[in-house]
Design a protein that fits this description.
Largest sheet: 9 strands, mixed
CATH architecture of the largest domain: Alpha-Beta Complex
CATH superfamily of the largest domain: Spore Coat Polysaccharide Biosynthesis Protein SpsA, Chain A
Number of domains: 2
CATH topology of the largest domain: Spore Coat Polysaccharide Biosynthesis Protein SpsA, Chain A
Radius of gyration: 27 Å
Helix content: 25-40%
Strand content: 25-35%
Structural class: alpha+beta
CATH class of the largest domain: Alpha Beta
C-alpha cells in the first residue's frame, strides 16, 4: 500500500458491530493487485467492544479508522469518502469482500473510457447461499425498474461531490439505488466487468427480512422526486410496469429439439398461474424429435411434479418417474424441485426409439412458491438440512461406547458421592 496522499483508489468500509468480518473484508482489499489503494474503516458508533478493539488494532497497523457516533450507512460512507484521498472510491460493507484484481481492472476501464461513471462486475453470493448473483447486464431500462448495480461498484470522488453524496434521508434503504441514479443523471456511462470480483455475504436471515409497504412507497416517492428528469427520459420502462400490472402472469415452455438445437421457433408456450396446473403439449407438428427440455416457469420457484405421461401415436401411454428427470434445481427430492434461478429447466432421459413415437406429453405440477418467496423457502430448507446433519453427527458421537459408559456411570451415582 502506498501512502494516503498517493492513493488512486480509496476503499471505504462502514462498520457497525461487524468487527468479526473485518479481517475478511480488509484482507480482500490488502490483497489487491493494484498498488495504490488506501483503506478507510468508519466505525459507525459500534456498541460491541470486540468490534471497537478490532478497529483500534487496525488503526495501529496502517488502516485509517474514523470513529463516529452511530449515524447510519449513508452517513458512514459519506464520512469516509470525505476524508478519502483516492480519485476513485469503493464503498465496501464490512461483511463482504472483493476479488484481488477488481480495482486494477476497474481503473483500467476508467482510463480506457473517460466517459464512465460506474464500473462494477459480476457477483457471487456466499454464506447461507453459494451461487452466482443473477444480475442482468446493465441497461438503462433495467435500471429504471430496479437497482441492478451492487453497492461496491467503483466511482469517481468528483461525481460523489457533484451528486451530493449518499442521501442520509433514504432511511429505509435504497441509498445505493438513489446514488447510482444520481451519477447516471450526470450523463455518465456504466461498464460491467466480465469476471466475478464482488462477493456478497448472505446471512441465514438476510432474505427473510423485508421492508413494509409504506416504507417502500416513501423511498420510491423520494427517488422519483429527486430523479424525475432521468425517469422522464426513460418513461417507457415505467409504463411497461403500469400496463403489465393487470396482465401479470407466468410462462411455461417446452423446447422441442428436432436436430436444430433448442430454439424459440421450436417451442410450445403457455401462460400459467401458481397452484395446480395440468399441461398438455401436442408434439405432432414436430418431426425427428431428439431432445425435450421443459421450463416449468420463468422465475425462481418451489414446485412439485406430480405426474409426467407420454402418449404415442398408437394410443399407448407411459408414466415417467420424476426421479429420473435431470434439472438445474438447487434441491430435488422425490417430486419436489427447488430452483433458485430465473431459468428453471428439466430434461427427460428418453431412449431415441421411444422419443420418435411420442406425440403428446402431459405434465401435472403444483407451483407452491415463486420469486423471493421461493428463495426464502430454499434458504430455510438449506438451513434445516445443515441442522439435521449436525444433529446426526451429534447422535453418532453420543452412541460411542465411551460416552455410553460415562453416561451410565453418572446416572448410577448417588448424591453425596
Amino acid at each position: 500500500m502506498d501512502s494516503r496522499n498517493k492513493a488512486t483508489v480509496s476503499v471505504v468500509i462502514p462498520c457497525y458491530n461487524h468487527g468479526a468480518y473485518l479481517p475478511d473484508s480488509i484482507g480482500s482489499v490488502q490483497a489487491q493487485s493494484h498498488p495504490n489503494v488506501e483503506i478507510i474503516v468508519v466505525n459507525d458508533g459500534s456498541t460491541d467492544e470486540h468490534t471497537n478493539a478490532i478497529c483500534d488494532n487496525y488503526q495501529k497497523n496502517g488502516v485509517h479508522v474514523i470513529s463516529t457516533t452511530n449515524q447510519g450507512l449513508a452517513a458512514a460512507r459519506n464520512n469516509g469518502i470525505e476524508q478519502a484521498s483516492g480519485h476513485y472510491i469503493v464503498a465496501l460493507d464490512a461483511d463482504d469482500r472483493i476479488g484481488p484484481t477488481y480495482l486494477e481492472q476497474a481503473v483500467a476501464a476508467f482510463n480506457a473510457h473517460p466517459q464512465l461513471g460506474i464500473v462494477y462486475s459480476k457477483a457471487w453470493l456466499f454464506g447461507a447461499m453459494d451461487m452466482q448473483w443473477n444480475l442482468p447486464p446493465f441497461s438503462m431500462e433495467q435500471m429504471m425498474l430496479d437497482n441492478i448495480i451492487f453497492c461496491s461498484a467503483v466511482f469517481k470522488k468528483e461525481d460523489w461531490l457533484l451528486v451530493g453524496g449518499y442521501d442520509v434521508n433514504m432511511i429505509y434503504g435504497w441509498e445505493d439505488y438513489d446514488f447510482w441514479l444520481g451519477i447516471l443523471s450526470l450523463g455518465r456511462e456504466v461498464q460491467q466487468l466480465s469476471d466475478f470480483h464482488f462477493f456478497y455475504r448472505i446471512a441465514s436471515n438476510s432474505m427473510v427480512r423485508s421492508k413494509q409497504k409504506w416504507q417502500k412507497v416513501e423511498m420510491f416517492k423520494r427517488i422519483y422526486q429527486k430523479h424525475r428528469d432521468l425517469i422522464g427520459k426513460n418513461i417507457e420502462a415505467w409504463l411497461d410496469i403500469l400496463v403489465g400490472y393487470h396482465e401479470n402472469y407466468y410462462e411455461t415452455k417446452l423446447y422441442v429439439d428436432t436436430g436444430k438445437g433448442l430454439n424459440e421457433d421450436e417451442s410450445i408456450v403457455y401462460k400459467i398461474d401458481t397452484g395446480k396446473n395440468q399441461l398438455h403439449f401436442d408434439l405432432t407438428p414436430f418431426n425427428g424429435i431428439c431432445e425435450l427440455r421443459f421450463d416449468p416457469i420463468d422465475c425462481a420457484v418451489c414446485l412439485e411434479i406430480n405426474g409426467i405421461a407420454f402418449s404415442t401415436l398408437n394410443g399407448q401411454e407411459y408414466e415417467y418417474d420424476p426421479e429420473q428427470v435431470k434439472s438445474n434445481a438447487r434441491f430435488h427430492q422425490n417430486s419436489l424441485f427447488m430452483f433458485d434461478n430465473r431459468d428453471p429447466h428439466l430434461f427427460f432421459s428418453i431412449p431415441p426409439e421411444v422419443m420418435k413415437k411420442i406425440n403428446r406429453i402431459t405434465i401435472q405440477m403444483d407451483i407452491n412458491k415463486t420469486g423471493d418467496d421461493a428463495l426464502r423457502e430454499i434458504i430455510l430448507f438449506q438451513n434445516s438440512i445443515t441442522r439435521n446433519e449436525a444433529d446426526e453427527a451429534e447422535q453418532s458421537a453420543a452412541a460411542h461406547p465411551f460416552w455410553q459408559h460415562l453416561r451410565k456411570s453418572i446416572l448410577s451415582s448417588k448424591p453425596g458421592k
